[in-house]
Amino acid sequence: MKLGKKQIVNGIIIVGVILLLFTPIGFRVKVYVSRLLSTGAAIVKAEIQVPLDTYQWELVDLEGNSLDFEKEQGNVVLVNFWATWCAPCIAEMPSLQKLYDDYGDKVTFILVAQDEYEKVTRFLQQKNYNLPVYYSKSDEPKVLESKLLPTTYVISKKGNIIVAETGAADWNSSKTRSLLDNLLKE
Which spans in 23-171 are helix H? Predict the structure, then answer.
């Protein structure tokens, strides 16, 4: 039986879809595409910015050290919810690492993993990331709840949510750096 041109094209499309959806190649393509499409984070308009409803939130880092979120009140804070299985999360990690390298001593970075400890530590080691990763020991404040990954918030010293971004973003953009510089001056 001889295959026609249409059948060959359909076969190639089916194989391509299977590769993209069900293999590590597909995951890498999703990461690459997310990275290409990511832009700087959007600032929430002043009239619709909401204040953090509470700072009561307990977290634990990868070494088992507790972080009491209440102690971060009065600081500029970046909170990022992510997982190793989330392609857009992985796509934005290099920009988060670069931002952390330059602002980690001025801004509190809290990357909240939604994944197994072993997978997270292996991922961080493989990529040589030294980002501060935590797990929630208690429920996060209601205004920080999101069912989407990644979700990132930037909170001002006054406790207002200045950025509420879902999906991959370029966190190392000049727009984000300018925003952080202005928030640090408050």
Answer: 24-37, 87-103, 117-127
